[in-house]
What does this fold into?
Amino acid sequence: MHITINNPVFNFQTAQPAMASALFASLLREEEQEPTAAEGPISRPAIGVYWAGQGGIYAGDFQGDDGVTFGLIVAAEQDVGRARWAPDGERDLSDWDGLQNTQRIRKECPAADLAAKYERDGHSDFYLPARRELNFAGATLHSTFGKDSWYWTSTPYSDSYAWAVDFEYGTADNDFRVSEFRVRPFRRFIY
It folds into this structure.
């Protein structure tokens, strides 16, 4: 069978004429249809609003160092408890990817384990945020964080310290890993 549509030539070889006719009819229908607009962007709530079905408050869109932009969700509770970070020791972890950090340190880091155990709206993919994720959420959701204690990140500073954020004064600093600070779970999704 030989079909010409708007000058391109398509050669189809088939033993079943009915199949060729159906394919030809399908091509013609597509040619006659008006182009459809691409689906619009995902309808997101305003930053700072609980996103029903997503497990928390929408903090905005965050772009990682890998170039991927993802929606960042923060647990609605100011914290899910307090925990220490982890034992001393060298760790090569990300400054922006809390999900990967949590997966790597969960077994030895009580704060990461506490965040990873959190579940809401059917989601069980929460994690302890990396330093840049927590700072980002602090900038967009500042009033939703407690002011009476620091919050752990999943980013280490050195062999004995890890990064934490204080929302009373807006300070990000490092502290001993044996300190018990607040844990606020985060989750992400790619559009």
Remarks:
- Residues 1-15, 19-40 have pLDDT under 50 and may be disordered.
